[in-house]
């Protein structure tokens, strides 16, 4: 019988996740946006304009790292700085129209590449993989929230 402790599952799946992650990003390298830049852009799309400190906290990165990533995105006109309506001294960052369209384009491209990887599975494995989608999304959502709560407390 296969053990289902979190440690056993992690030990069994970690090598494959690492390999898939590396392979996926090698295939999806056509975009010159980095994973962290895409993550920031997706966060801005989902949550709206945010202060740099908030982005850093939610991404689990240091302020200089967030500031640098945002500066690079701003140079490409994918994000822009706007006045914070609650605190006129503060600045928020938001996606531009170009940023939204680039995020959608890259997302569609990467979905296509991931679909090609998944498409190599046989029918039975494909059905089993489909059953895991909700669990994987739940894990990703709760892990991100736990990371934010841990870093801000």
Automatic annotation (TrEMBL):
Note the Pfam families from the entry: MarR (PF01047)
Q: Mention one GO molecular function.
A: DNA-binding transcription factor activity
Q: Which SUPFAM superfamilies match?
A: Winged helix' DNA-binding domain
Q: Which UniProt keywords apply?
A: DNA-binding, Transcription, Transcription regulation
GO:BP terms for this protein? Answer: response to stress
Query: What sequence ranges are listed for the domain HTH marR-type?
Result: 6-141
Q: What name does the UniProt record give this protein?
A: MarR family transcriptional regulator
Biological source species: Corynebacterium marinum
């Amino acid at each position: 019988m296969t053990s289902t402790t979190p440690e056993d599952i992690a030990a069994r799946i970690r090598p494959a996740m690492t390999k898939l992650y590396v392979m996926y990003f090698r295939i999806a390298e056509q975009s010159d946006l980095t994973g962290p830049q895409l993550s920031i852009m997706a966060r801005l799309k989902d949550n709206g304009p945010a202060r740099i400190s908030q982005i850093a906290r939610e991404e689990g990165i240091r302020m200089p790292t967030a500031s640098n990533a945002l500066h690079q995105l701003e140079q490409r006109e994918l994000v822009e700085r706007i006045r914070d309506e609650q605190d006129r001294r503060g600045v928020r960052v938001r996606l531009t129209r170009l940023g939204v369209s680039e995020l959608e384009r890259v997302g569609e491209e990467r979905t296509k590449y991931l679909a090609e990887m998944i498409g190599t599975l046989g029918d039975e494995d494909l059905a089993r993989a489909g059953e895991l989608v909700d669990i994987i999304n739940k894990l990703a959502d709760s892990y991100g929230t736990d990371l934010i709560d841990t870093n801000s407390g």
